[in-house]
Specification:
Blueprint (H helix, E strand, L loop, with lengths): L1 E6 L10 H22 L9 E5 L4 E7 L4 E18 L3 E19 L2 H6 L10 E12 L14 E15 L4 E19 L7 E20 L4
Antiparallel strand pairs: 1-4, 2-3, 2-9, 3-4, 4-5, 5-6, 6-7, 7-8, 8-9
Length: 221
């Protein structure tokens, strides 16, 4: 029997089955289409935004590429706390502070609904659908059956997410997203049950993805 629990500064990864993942991916791909017609009727447009974050410390830049579309990039320090238990290998736990980067394509879809309720849409204060790729350079295991790595190596996740961004008048910023993706990494395992010899394996799996960033926007008022 095996169990794994991972918490990454409110960023977490939960392995899910391929069948459910493919259903969710299909639904996520349909969502932007449902909102395109309504978005064409609003006068709101997104803008470029630079932010500093203190939860997952780093810097991000969001660049406008269309009326309601942006490209988002962030370089940050990823903090990972984890605990795993296996009937074969026992318990394993640790905390990692790892360099990381993410790039996202975002489509903001609910400007009309927010305006109808008298809510702000300036400074990209809307919800969005995003295609994203994230890479973390870490020694942490990518799978509960793997050993801790001696050296940092890239762990990359590609996926789709729903998110929201709220940038307040006093510069405070909240940005969070949740979705599903596919993880790629190198892992290390024992050659057998009764040996200390190891070898490298490729790890790939569907995973849940989520991130929350708190910080401050730096644009001129």
């Amino acid at each position: 029997m095996d169990a794994t629990f991972i918490l990454t500064n409110f960023k977490y990864y939960i392995t899910i089955t391929k069948t459910n993942s493919m259903k969710l991916l299909f639904i996520a791909l349909l969502i932007p289409t449902c909102f395109c017609q309504a978005q064409n009727n609003t006068g709101t447009e997104v803008r470029n935004i630079t932010k500093l974050t203190f939860l997952n410390p780093g810097i991000s830049y969001e660049a406008k590429i269309g009326k309601m579309q942006t490209l988002y990039a962030q370089a940050f320090l990823n903090t990972t706390a984890y605990f795993s238990w296996s009937s074969t290998f026992g318990s394993n736990s640790g905390i990692y502070f790892d360099p990381a980067a993410t790039a996202q394509y975002r489509y903001y879809y609910n400007a009309t609904a927010r305006q109808a309720k008298g809510k702000r849409t300036e400074m990209n204060n809307m919800n969005y659908i995003a295609g994203m790729v994230e890479t973390i350079f870490t020694q942490a295991t990518a799978d509960e059956y793997n050993l801790k790595e001696v050296d940092r190596r890239p762990v990359t996740t590609i996926g789709l997410a729903w998110g929201l961004q709220r940038n307040g008048l006093k510069r405070f910023s909240l940005d969070l997203n949740l979705g599903i993706g596919y993880l790629f990494a190198k892992g290390t395992v024992y050659n057998g049950d009764y040996t200390n010899e190891t070898h490298s394996v490729n790890v790939s799996k569907f995973t849940g993805i989520g991130q929350i960033n708190l910080g401050f926007w730096l644009n001129n008022r």
